[in-house]
Amino acid sequence: MAGASSGGNSAYPSFSSRIAFIIVTAGSAVGLGNVWGFPYVAGQNGGGGFVLIYLLALAFVAAPAFMAELMLGRMGKASPPNALGRLQAKAGSRLHWPLVGWTGLVGTILVLSFYAVIAGQAMDYAIEAAKGGFAGWSDHEVQALDADFKSSMPMMALWSAIFMGLTALIVSFDINTGLEKAGKVMMPALLMILLGMVIYSGNTGDFGAAVDFLFGFHKMDVTPRLFLEAVGQAFFTLGVGVGGIMTYGSYMGSNVNLPRATLWIVAMDLFVALAAGLAIFPLVFSSGVSAAAGPGLVFLTLPLIFADIPGGAVVAFAFFLLLTFAAVTSSISLLSPTVARLEEAGWSRRKGAVLMASLAVIISLLTAYSFAGGKHVFPLAALGLDGMTFFDLIREGVSNFILPLSGLAYALMVGWALSREEVRKALPMEDGLMFRLWHGVIRYVAPICITALFIGAVAG
Ligand code: TRP
């Protein structure tokens, strides 16, 4: 079997410390999903009620699955397809586990393909901000900046290539010099900028309105679709379901307490999402624009706000730098699984990283096209998916299908195929209430919720 080439586990790479593992893996979780995605998804879905469902989805579905994925990685100590192949043998299962690993690898490149375009726009805006910010810009100018970016295929392709080049550069080094250094520099910087922004917003904007919006209860329609959105967002934000977490898990030392590390990472991810909301919404409410602006919240609404607040240029630069850092620490986790698999096939990290990053850039042209000339091209309209561009299909296909279905597969592997004792020792956890709770969730709650969700989505 191909995985055997990495079988001499003493040489298998590992993060240099517990804290390094937590920072780098939290970096994978904290990304565009938190800073760009969460505020607009919460905004579109009415705030408080959505946030509550999102919290439940995190706690009872996505976080337990995250823990399962980490554990599978540490037990399998290889790239996702080979790690799962080993564990299949161990469990004596006749199902083809590596298939879930391969699907995940496809998922990583698909996520990267749209991630790169959005991160590219963030980088472009950071430069725009550095050139003097958006000070005094009119509504019209801000819209033109966004429209210019989104209508120019060469511009988007260029930024996507720059972003993926940076990602490939970091991933081409060994684990400790590449991933780990990047996390140790960018994550603390990101947290500092974010805290600074929350304080600034709290002082300049309408903090009370933001808190009420995010945590207050407002009348809303509770539909199956809303649950699907919440679960999709929960999976996406933790980055569960494509093998990125499994790959980082394979680099996790056996001395790291896996359940406790999971708690830290999930807490950090949640903190960043809520803090991003508290950095953005006070400004949104005090300027009187709509909180439900959708995906344009960050690239249309915010620059307009930065245009006429004191110190707007500095705030704007800090914000888009924050977005860029968040994106890079996530994209390196998305490039790592395929590179790990190619390494097992004898490739150097550099060659693997360049090849897979190039592939992501090529596929990113589909997203670029969806923003530009293909804005009204709906490839699956005949299948009833009218109104969905390539970008919508890729993004929703990954978030609403690949991620939850892989999550379901991980839950079944860990909850049913591997023995309870084996799993308990691998974590390791004492045979107490916490373990029983988690194991029950992995065995029953998560699989039932995910299945129910699909039935609801298909029926609804
Ligand atoms: N979690 C990251 C974010 O919130 C993105 C991400 C990293 C991701 N790894 C992933 C999304 C794996 C889906 C699958 O932006």
UniProtKB/TrEMBL annotation:
UniProt keyword Membrane, yes or no: yes
Protein's UniProt name: Sodium-dependent transporter
Membrane topology: Multi-pass membrane protein
InterPro entries to which the protein is assigned, alphabetical: Na/ntran_symport, SNS_sf, YocR/YhdH-like
Keyword Mitochondrion among UniProt keywords: no
NCBIfam families with a match to the protein in the record: Na_transp
Sequence intervals crossing the membrane: 19-39, 51-74, 95-118, 156-173, 185-202, 230-251, 263-285, 305-332, 353-371, 401-418, 438-459
Source organism: Kordiimonas lipolytica
UniProt cross-references to SUPFAM superfamilies, sorted A to Z: SNF-like (SSF161070)
Signal peptide limits: none
Domain of life where this protein originates: Bacteria
Keywords: Membrane, Transmembrane, Transmembrane helix, Transport
Subcellular localization: Membrane
